[in-house]
Amino acid sequence: MTASAERLYRLLVESGGSAPRNTLLGGESSAGADTFTDADIDILVSLHLVSVESGTGVVSVLNPRLALTASVAQRAAEISRLHAESEQVRAGIEGLQEAYDSLGGFGDQAQAVERSNDLQLIRSLLSHAGQNCVSEVLTAQPEALQESAVADSRPRDLALLQRGVRMRTIYPHTVLSSPGVQRHFSIMQAAGSEIRTASGIIERVVIFDREVAFLADRRDRGGGAVIIREPAVVEYLYQSLEQTWRLATPFVYTRVGYGETIDDIKAGILRQMAAGAKDEVVARRMNMSTRTCRRHISEILAELGADSRFQAGMLAARLGWIDTSWTDGAQQDTAV
User: Fold this and answer.
1) How high is the mean pLDDT of the chain?
2) How many helices (H) and strands (E) does the chain have?
3) How many CB atoms sit inside 10 A of residue 25's CB?
4) Is 102 part of a structural domain of the chain?
5) Residues 125 and 160 reside in one and the same domain
6) Tens digits of per-residue pLDDT, 10-44?
7) What is the C-alpha to C-alpha distance for residues 210 and 133, in angstroms, rounded to an integer?
8) Domain total for the chain?
9) Residue-range definition of the domain harbouring residue 181
10) Are 113 and 226 in contact (CB under 8 A)?
11) In sequence order, what are the beta bridge partners of 50?
12) H helices within 49-146, ranges in order?
């Protein structure tokens, strides 16, 4: 029901209960100069609030109480139809389960670890896992969510927190450069969510109740996912994230800037520089834009008084700013 359709119904009542269709569409009536459209009349017809005589085109009001009964009955019939269709779909899919299970061990493995590039299906599975989550959601995100994604996910996350579900999320330090991201983190933290940031590469992983994990499929550029229910694999992913969580830095709202995490960011860049990585590679591994990465590199070069990126990395190693053994290993890997 729209406001315009409601005004039309009231106008018809004030006009004695009926009026010619042409008069209503032309806005000529004793009650004022409101102009209505065919859409307004169609809405009232669909709700059984008016009838239109086929010959004369006269629009007449009907009893709202009877209209309500008719509308409810119509929608109940539609719900029954959809329910019947759903049952047919369920029966059809379940009928194929026996054929799928005939794959034997491969079939069992596919159920435990499955891949999908159907984004709608992945969202549905994530939503279902969230609705059935009772204990904890542990997540690693390689980058900050877009504003549209934040607006979509925040109500679901807040609902989980209100149900007493523990939520922990790990992000790279670099996301803290965005004031919008910090505001979102602050809102979620106030609601009970736990957020930490870490240096280096973080894979996208979401684990619900240590029972099912969603892992980004790096082989699928379209945003596919691997859904894992195998207990041993899920537990391995969980313990890996748990270790990253213990070493990560708790989020502190600074409005803008990296805060105390800037030293970790610089150390991460220096390690890549010492290994001889190019700017684009360093930026990708540090989850930041090439432009931002080059700005940090320039600041590091000036701070160390170095003439090259490699020299800066070696000077930092000698000064103890980065782990020398890690640097030596990285150089050997690069040389190979």
Assistant:
1) 78
2) 15, 11
3) 16
4) no
5) yes
6) 999 988 998 888 888 875 444 445 678 888 898 89
7) 10
8) 4
9) 116-250
10) yes
11) 61
12) 64-95, 97-101, 105-112, 119-132
